[in-house]
Amino acid sequence: MSDEPARLAEGMTAVPRERQRAENHVCEHGGCGLRAPFGFARPKQKPHWFCLAHRADGDLYL
Ligand SMILES: [Zn+2]
Questions:
Q1: pTM (two decimals)
Q2: Cα–Cα distance measured from residue 8 to residue 23, given in angstroms and rounded to the nearest whole number
Q3: HSE-CB for 32 with a 13 A CA cutoff
Q4: Residue 35, CB half-sphere, CA atoms under 13 Å: how many?
């Protein structure tokens, strides 16, 4: 029916892969500073970025 990617969770928007590669995101967890491949964003809000270890923190922004 739709070409949209599967939803990760209600209210969560997957950040397109192109955008993930285009920018060098850093984990927002205090004092971490690792590369952050996991983006969390509500519609019409800036995404928040976290590394593998801290991606659970992204739930706070969903
Ligand atoms: Zn981190």
A1: 0.59
A2: 22
A3: 17
A4: 6
Q: Give the chain's length.
A: 62
What digits encode the pLDDT tens for the residues 6-60?
A: 555 566 666 666 555 546 789 999 999 999 988 888 888 888 999 999 999 998 8
Residue with tokens 């927002």: 28
Say how far apart CA 62 and CA 39 lie, in whole Å: 11
What's the 8 CA to ligand 1 centre distance in angstroms?
20
User: How close is the Cα of 61 to the center of ligand 1, in Å?
Assistant: 15
